Amino acid sequence: MTLFVNALTQLDVSLWCPKRGLIGASWHIDAELDGELGEDGMLFDFGEVKPWIKSRLDAGADHTLLIPTRAPGITVHECNEGLCIRAQSPYPMEVRGPRQAFTLLPWSEITTERLGTHFSHELMRRPPARVSDIRLTLREENIDGEAYSYSHGLKRHTGNCQRIAHGHRSRLHIWKNGQRDAQLEAQWAKWLADRYLVDEEDLVADANDEVYGSLTTRYQAPQGRFFLRLPSERFAVLPSPTTIEHIATWLAAKIAHDIGHRIRVQAFEGINKGAIAEARP
Ligand SMILES: Nc1nc2c(c(=O)[nH]1)N=C([C@H](O)[C@H](O)COP(=O)(O)OP(=O)(O)OP(=O)(O)O)CN2
């Protein structure tokens, strides 16, 4: 017998891609479980399947930076913050933070297929009674219009959003003078694509940055100390923390100022939630 639960939970992560660099990603998680029925006629109570799988993913890869440790140019070593990870290609990155902020995977590239198999194996280490196999599938949200992706960290968040490099892939809706504007949505999704959104308060002066054309962000949060250096053009600098409320407000003000019209922005953070802001030129 096979039991399934579609869209059981979501994963919001960043990952290092040897072709695109730092990417924000959000995936639905679909689950299938094989096994034998118990006397109650069930394989595994839905009310227990969902919290079991969600809690395991939340405590593991969710809100971490996924690193393919066998990609060319990746190095990982211990440092005062916990782990220091450097990448070279397609551009240089250095990130440091507590061990729990990273998921290290011994692969040359991260794919949703490999992640699904990896998470399934992890869950099968201690399977529930009567479950003989588990298959997880990671699936991008089907977005008709524009999707934008970014990475960030919220130093004041008490949960895992404080981790300096986690991200999202999300819908972006923009209205100009009350009308949805597909062209503006495409333009801003393209501009935001794969950027790191940083609060200007968290940028620090670092001698390397002048030499290499990079920017460095560093902060202390409840889980530990975090550090990230990327080429300056990979950043978008906000005058505020990068909560979705501030992202929507900043985007609306920036677009209204740029084009001189009344703007409404509905910015999603991952799947099915976000913030709405309006601005006038
Ligand atoms: N009002 C806001 N709340 C939160 C924000 C925010 O910008 N505004 N941001 C975050 C984090 O950035 C986080 O990445 C979002 O995390 P998410 O996975 O969606 O939240 P949960 O883990 O609490 O939800 P699940 O249902 O467990 O996925 C957090 N809050």
TrEMBL record:
One of its GO terms (molecular function) is 6-carboxytetrahydropterin synthase activity. It comes from the Bacteria. Signal peptide: none annotated. Its EC number is 4.1.2.50. Pathway: Purine metabolism; 7-cyano-7-deazaguanine biosynthesis. It holds the Pfam family PTPS. It catalyses: 7,8-dihydroneopterin 3'-triphosphate + H2O = 6-carboxy-5,6,7,8-tetrahydropterin + triphosphate + acetaldehyde + 2 H(+). InterPro entries: 6-PTP_synth/QueD (IPR007115), 6-PTP_synth/QueD_sf (IPR038418). SUPFAM superfamilies: Tetrahydrobiopterin biosynthesis enzymes-like (SSF55620). Belongs to the PTPS family. QueD subfamily. This is 6-carboxy-5,6,7,8-tetrahydropterin synthase. It comes from Litchfieldella anticariensis (strain DSM 16096 / CECT 5854 / CIP 108499 / LMG 22089 / FP35). The lineage of its organism: Bacteria, Pseudomonadati, Pseudomonadota, Gammaproteobacteria, Oceanospirillales.
